[in-house]
Structures are given as structure tokens and as C-alpha cells.
Design brief:
Helix content: 25-40%
Radius of gyration: 21 Å
Strand content: 15-25%
Largest sheet: 7 strands, mixed
Structural class: alpha/beta
Order of helices and strands: HEHEHEHEEHEHHEEHEHEEHEEEH
Shape: globular
Strand order of the largest sheet: 7-8-9-6-5-11-12
CATH superfamily of the largest domain: Aldehyde Dehydrogenase, Chain A, domain 2
CATH class of the largest domain: Alpha Beta
């Protein structure tokens, strides 16, 4: 949210923030900060509520809203884009992803494991840039799967204030039910469950939380639902590959194109892969690194437009041509 607010306000705009109904307090706290530092009333505004037939729809269809920037599901982004078409208002949309990590045999295995653990299970998998598909070059496939399994099984579920916690809960029981439905679907489709697949046994004081086991699958075709559809949970499918051409084709065979991670020590291969992968951002031997001055956004059904640096300034201002004859 702050990635959007900063440049929008710096360009002289007033803003209306509609946070997710699941997380209203972050925007409320930011509103308190705005008041304390003296931001004039009416410059930063927060409207809470639901999306369809409620606050979200009201804001996206209101004629005095000059531009809309959104982060969330592709389905919601498509609805916003349709609403913005009435009035020809500009939109910037960061939407869903089914991001692929590609691990080559010449990678630094320790770095690849640590980076993939983070990209797949950070925030209990509730990160739009997170990894849900992993393609591993066949000579190291079994080793990678076993190493990742060992690392995942060391992750202790717990609250963020507990330093020993390795993974927290999902945002809500409703979302956990959705993720669990994919866990069940993976079994129906014939997946091999490497680890996880259920609900962890928690202490009595924590049993009411939306806990779920981090999960790894193998053995599914790329056409399987859990390999094609965004789950937004702590889970991934790992599959072997044999060539660059094959893995490029498989990584790109998806309606989303938000992000990708490549793990290799071959610089020439890095350039070939980064150019061929259909994604708005490609990380090499890393994940979630970003200079805020660089462009950020998704390809295909993962987004419209770019934010960051000059791209944000272009979106939050109106380019004008003034011609004067003297």
C-alpha cells in the first residue's frame, strides 16, 4: 500500500484507501500517523468495507475518482478494469500469480534451498510474488526435494512474537478452507505428498488459529489444478526438467506472469532465461530483492501497468503538452 501512497501523494493527489476487509487495522494505523504528522484533512482517506455491491464497487464506479490502483485477485482486478472503462479512467493492477522457480544443476544448492523456503513459505504463502511451482533439473531433482523436505519439516508453526516460530497461520478460517480444498484436490489428481497436507496439532491456546501445514507435492502434470491455479498458501509442486527449452515452455504455460526465480551460476544462461520467461520481474539467485526506483508489475493476467520510479510518477500525473507562440 505504501508503494502506491508515497508517489500518489508526492505528485499532489488526494487518495482514498480501501484496504482488504481482512486487514483493516494497518490502514487505520497509517491514518493515525498521517494525522499526527500534520497531513491536511482530506488528503489521506480510509474507507473500510467489502468489495462487490459495497465500498469497493462504490469507489471504483464513482465519477470523481480519477484513477484506480489495485492489488489483489485477478477476478477482482478484471471487475475494476470494467468499472474504470466507464469514464475512461486509468488503472494500475497488480493481480494474481502462479510463480515458477527454476533450479539448475549448477546452482548453489544451499542458497537455492534457503531462497525457495523463503519464497514459498514466507507469510504462510500469502505473498503474491511467492513461489508455487518449482522446476528442478533432473540430475539434482531427488536431492533438492529431500533437502527442501528436511528444511520444511524443521519449520515450527507459531505466533510471530515467538522467536522459534518458522511459520504462522493463514489470514482466516475461510481462507484455510480454500487452501485445504486444494490440498484435497492434489490427492484427487494423484499427487505424491512429500510432506504436510493437513492441519498441525497445536497447543490448546493456539487451536483456534487458522493453522495449516506447509506442503510439498510431486508427481503431477502441468495441467493439474494445483499446478495451474493460484492457491495463496504455503505449498508448492516440484517437477523435474531436462532442458532450457522445455522448462521455458512449461514455466510460460500458465495464464499468470507476475514473477519468477532462476537459480544458476551460469551467467549466459541467466540472460537467456530472463529474456524468455514471461514475467514482470525475474530474480536470479535471489527472491524479493527490489529497488523501488525500478519497474514493478505483472504480465498476462497478473497485471496492467508498472509502478516504481518514473513509472509511478507517470501514472499519478497527467502528461500535458503546452505550446506557446511568442
Amino acid at each position: 500500500m505504501t508503494w502506491k501512497l508515497g508517489p500518489a501523494m508526492a505528485c499532489g493527489n488526494t487518495v482514498v484507501v480501501k484496504p482488504s476487509e481482512e486487514t483493516p487495522q494497518a490502514a487505520a494505523l497509517l491514518g493515525d500517523v498521517m494525522n499526527k504528522v500534520g497531513v491536511p484533512k482530506g488528503v489521506f482517506n480510509v474507507v473500510n468495507g467489502f468489495g462487490p455491491d459495497a465500498a469497493g464497487e462504490f469507489l471504483t464506479t464513482h465519477p470523481q475518482v480519477g484513477a484506480i490502483t489495485f492489488t489483489g485477485e485477478t477476478r477482482t482486478g478484471a471487475a475494476i478494469m470494467k468499472a474504470a472503462a466507464d469514464g475512461a479512467r486509468p488503472v494500475s493492477l497488480e493481480m494474481g500469480g502462479k510463480n515458477a522457480a527454476i533450479v539448475f544443476a549448477d546452482c548453489d544448492m544451499d542458497e537455492a534451498i534457503a531462497g525457495t523456503i523463503r519464497s514459498t513459505f514466507a507469510n504462510c504463502g500469502q505473498v503474491c510474488l511467492g513461489t508455487e511451482r518449482i522446476y528442478v533439473e533432473r540430475p539434482i531433482f531427488e536431492t533438492f526435494v529431500n533437502r527442501l523436505k528436511e528444511a520444511v519439516e524443521k519449520m515450527k508453526p507459531g505466533v510471530p512474537t515467538d522467536p522459534s516460530s518458522g511459520i504462522g497461520p493463514l489470514i482466516s478460517q475461510e481462507h484455510r478452507n480454500k487452501v485445504l480444498s486444494y490440498y484435497a484436490k492434489a490427492l484427487e489428481e494423484g499427487a505424491t505428498v512429500v510432506t504436510g497436507g493437513g492441519i498441525p496439532d497445536m497447543p490448546d491456546a493456539l487451536k483456534g488459529g487458522s493453522w495449516i501445514e506447509p506442503t510439498i507435492w510431486t508427481g503431477l502434470p502441468d495441467t493439474a489444478a494445483v499446478v495451474r491455479e493460484e492457491i495463496f498458501g504455503p505449498c508448492c509442486h516440484i517437477a523435474p526438467f531436462d532442458s532450457e527449452d522445455e522448462v521455458i515452455r512449461r514455466a510460460n504455460d500458465n495464464p499468470y506472469g507476475l514473477a519468477s526465480a532462476i537459480w544458476t551460476t551460469n551467467l549466459q544462461r541467466t540472460h537467456r532465461m530472463a529474456a524468455a520467461i514471461e514475467a514482470g520481474i525475474v530474480w536470479v539467485n535471489s527472491w524479493f530483492l527490489r529497488d523501488l526506483r525500478t519497474p514493478f508489475g505483472g504480465a498476462k493476467q497478473s497485471g496492467i501497468g508498472r509502478e516504481g520510479g518514473v513509472h509511478s510518477l507517470e501514472f499519478y500525473t497527467e502528461l500535458k503538452n503546452v505550446c506557446i507562440k511568442l
